[in-house]
Amino acid sequence: MKQKKVDISMIPYEKCYEDSGIISSSEGTYSKSYRIENEKKTDSNVDLELIYLAFSQLFVELKNTTSQFVIRNAAIEKNEYLKRIQLEKNQDQIINEVISKYNNVLAKNIDVGHNNYKTDVILTVKVYADNSDTANQVFEELFPKLLSKVECLPGFKVYEMNLLERLELMYEIYNPGIERSFDKSLIKKSSTKEMIASSKYEKKRRDLLGLEKYYVRMFFINNIPGENTDTILHDLLSVSNNSILSVGYQPLDSMIGYSGAKRAIKNNTDVLEIPVRRTIEDRKLKRVSKVETIRDECENDSFTRSAIEILRDSASKEEPVIQASFILGLYAESIEELERDTKMLKLSASKYSCQIKTCDYMQDKAFQSVLPLAETKIDVSRVFNISRMSKILPVNINSTRTNKPMLEGLNAINDNMIFIDRNKYQIGLITGGSEQVKTYALKRDVVNSLMSSDASVVIVTTKAEKYKRFTEIFDCKLFRGVSPDLFSKDEDYGLDTDVKKARAIFLEAFVTAKDGFYNRRLMKEELKEYYEKVETDVGLINELHDFNMALDYLDLNPKRCELFRRAIGGYIVDSTIPNLDDSRVNIIETADFAEYLTTIDYLWSQSIKLKKNCKNVCVYLDGVDEFLKSETTSDYLISILDRCRRLKVPVTMVLEDPVKIVTDDDAVIELEYFLKRIQLHKILSLGPIERKYFIEKLNIPKILVPYITDREPKEGIIVSPSLNIAFNDHFENNDDPFFSIFS
Question: Does residue 566 sit in the same domain as residue 582?
């Protein structure tokens, strides 16, 4: 069969080595590629700082090479994507009806943004060697080091790519959306370039290329401000489900770079000497003042001047520096689609205060630069120190494989759907916005749990009427607050080595909650004395084994344990305790704060019993503000959260009035300890006082601050140790079958 003639001039390599998977782009240069895959769930406890450290170490290992990460989004069929995200039905008829409505929402909104794509991440390393055998030896020594550094990233694996895999990847880059498959049998019959080349490659205009039936436009990222988030590359790339991004890295000696930058600035600067004639002394000494003017005020000069500061600082700290280039390409089947995606890309970049520029008159060279060959053909590199570069992540640590991630809304920057697996984030907090908006967010989370798991759900609230609609839909069981035996403690599932200590924390919190002293605004000395009295009372009572023994002790010692005596005055132990197995959704309404606290303690005991029977429960605390107003109640809440996290009992809480907590001198101290236990924050619109506090304590990137400032209901940000994202959950009107559930 006669081969179709193709233009191979645009493919920038010279020779391939089938046995080793090496490709030579020019004499003495050899490259090898590695596929980076995310294979399992990321532990939500992994700190971003550890991930940054892993990338810093990776760049250090690659210091004697030229390297490149290629990130490629390739469109997949919508039906295939829907199969991945839609939920399967189960045995519960009521939940199945909700799942059907949820799946319809996904199907209706799949065309909003660019959702149906898969992402490949390829690391290519280029070395200089005398021959391919020497280069192969270098790669063999390098691979174990790459393996150890990449696998420091939770859930990630690295695999060597053979020659056919590399050629097939380049074939897909040159032939997007082409139905014919890559013919591996031709490797022995024709040149590899003919195998991968596009049959149609046209330099259409100064700002785009023609590639088969697609148009391609190439851009470079001109500037990335330091305060941007770690997900910026993937967020920019995801404006299209058919796009590619190359990040090229070239190590740089800071002293040589500094000298070169200084020389370039000097060559582009005119120095004019102007005589100073203010005084007689000036004239005698013939003093002059020097005025510098820039000959060509261009971007290169601006970036050279900023680079010299980085180089000087890095040299003084002996910190490695690196040159990096960011080149991005968008594919589209029509000019109109390409223009729309271009506008979306520039809009997304502007939200990050990031500069994106079209590679005018350089489209051909820019396209060659994104091929996985570690060959950057255009000069758009910028200087970064290693610590800054390691925070611009080429891998998406939030796209880990998971069983049932649930829709949280749309990405407010690029309109893509946001899916989160709450199994990775056991402890969550919702705050900001009006009471109605926070309740809506809590209900969304409850329904997500019901659809994605078989766990029972318990909502603790002081206002059960807010959940009237829930009660109708899910046949909820409504209970009053629980007053259990204060001394009855199950074995703590092996989590607490000192059960007596755990009971003491609870009893101190109970006494404080019943007394409500924190509402009296005591002085510091009085406060300290009060806590000491509580500790003394509980210390005596905690030696007893049950509630009746405590009552007998108080009768025999009428002058002791005054605070505890006052706390249990009128306390009646419930004869019947709610059974959480009877319903999937249970709502417990409490009359006061002390009852709220005893209810939570009861739920902890129930969680242990359910776990022992291989059953699960999700707990929702609608209002935890009171816990933060005293040391003892705050300590108790934190101890419960720590145990729930270890037992893998998801807890989601609502902070109702953050401004009151932030402006309370005592509560704000407890808030800081409390926030350290939260693994997933959903923050809605905040006022200026509490917004400033949360920005500082959660290290919220500057780019996301507008999304918690005077926002519409159902808009905000989601923050975790490994995730910062703006969301919009305002999908439909309340009459939509799915979203009407939350009204």
Answer: no
Query: What's at 536, amino acid-wise?
Result: T
The first and second tokens of residue 163, run together, are 């020659």
pLDDT digits (tens, 9 = 90+) for 151-183: 887 778 899 999 999 999 999 898 887 655 666
Cα gap 254→636, rounded to integer Å: 52
Alpha-carbon gap, residue 698 to 720, rounded angstroms: 9
Q: What is the pLDDT of residue 44?
A: 45
Q: Are residues 725 and 600 in the same domain?
A: yes
Q: Is residue 112 part of a domain?
A: yes
Model pLDDT for residues 222-281, shown as the tens digit of each residue: 888 766 567 788 888 888 889 999 999 998 876 666 666 667 767 777 777 777 777 877
Q: Of the candidates 597, 632, 642, which has an alpha carbon nearest to the alpha carbon of residue 509?
A: 632
568 and 699, same domain (yes or no): no
Instruction: Report residue 621: phi and psi, to 5°.
Output: -105, 105
Q: Based on the fold, state whether residues 513 and 639 are members of the same structural domain.
A: no
| pLDDT (tens digit per residue) in 620-654 | 999 999 999 999 999 999 999 998 988 889 999 99
Q: How far apart are CA 525 and CA 397, in angstroms?
A: 48
Query: Rounded to the nearest 5°, which phi and psi values hold at 322?
Result: -145, 145
List of residues 6+ apart from 16 with CB closer than 8 A: 22, 23, 24, 163, 167, 192
* Residue 11 in domain: no
User: What's the CA dihedral at 306, 312, 316, 322 to 10 degrees?
Assistant: 70
Q: What is the 3-state secondary structure (H, E, C) of 104-137?
A: HHHHHHCCCCCCCEEEEEEEEEEEECCCHHHHHH
Report which residue type is found at 722. S
Distance (Å, whole) CA 543 – CA 39: 51
Token couple for 488: 């009855």
Strand partners, 411: 727
What is the C-alpha separation between 679 and 268, in angstroms, rounded? 51
- Exposure string for 471-499, b = 16+ CB within 10 A, e = fewer: eebbebbbbebbbbebbebeebeeebeee
Residue ranges in the chain modelled with pLDDT below 70: 1-7, 40-47, 178-190, 226-229, 254-262, 265, 297-308, 311, 316, 398-404, 489-497, 518, 520, 722, 732-735
